[in-house]
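User: Predict structure, ligand zinc ion.
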Amino acid sequence: MSQIQDRFTMPMPDDFHAHLRQGAGLSAYVRGHAGQFGRVLLMPNTLPPVSDAARLEAYREEVTRALVALPEAERFEPLFTFKILPGMRGAEVEASARAGAVAGKYYPAGATTNAADGPHSFDEVEEALNAMEAQGLVLCIHGEDPEAPILERECAFLPRVERLLTRHPRLRVVLEHLSDARSVHFVETGPENLAATITAHHLLFTIDDMIGNSMNPHLYCKPVLKFARDRDALRAAVLSGSRKFFFGSDSAPHPREKKECGAAASGVYSSPSALPALVELFDSLGSLDSLIPFMTEHGAAFYGLPRTSRTVTLERGPWKVPKLIDGVVPMCAGRTLEWRVARN
Ligand code: DOR
Ligand code: ZN
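Assistant: Predicted complex:
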């Protein structure tokens, strides 16, 4: 790959963590992934949440309506999750699995956007976790302790994950959107059934990009961006080729007015620019060879999905990321990237 200078074709990436929202937003936000990603795992923190089989079916219909409005070649396959709520019964998990869910998402109460209804501990959802383990569903975790100081929240949550893994040795667990060098180490040294997603923004930016000189609310997300050593540990995890790490954009659109205000919502709308921005980064690191399996193989293998048969072509050439897309400021807005997705 590294000898290919100006144009190359790669398997179409999967995105194992994205927020497409609901309603009018959804029909716009599907365009962010269109033509760039083959499969997208949809997070369930919609309003109302995707928390049972009926809601999942309704959400699938809504997502499908949005996708069929795209040109056929640009459509992606949506993968569904359900939100794990306190006291959830095993039978509800089984019904969501029958409805096609591949994973359940654990949001600690109050940890992030639309998570006020989440559990306070794994004990509150023990029956659901047992059912997920039995059904072979993946547990996706927003791993932050909202009681801890903001920069320590992810690390403070790790002991709970350790206990969970001991109690559920067959449950496949994904720690979502890693942001801290200590969690990278935790995942690297953890059991086979533990993996993690990494976003483009945590690979590209640090807390100084967000609040170092002036405040950029468009880089404010949960977990918040950390230090250069953390970003570098995340890059090293990708460069290592470890199959425990795979791409999940955590693309999380919020309308501009919800970001540029006195109480900015958390989330980076990264899907439109994540692929070219990561190609630019890993090209500059001389390692497109490690980016490609990170974005196209490791996640599918962990989830037990077939390798993708679709491809996408990248070409070197300036691409100015729009300043606003469908009312949302995307990641790298206004910046000129060195790579772009070749559109037919
Ligand atoms: O920054 C974030 N935004 N982190 C999350 O975990 C949720 C997301 C959202 O839904 O906006
Ligand atoms: Zn998310």
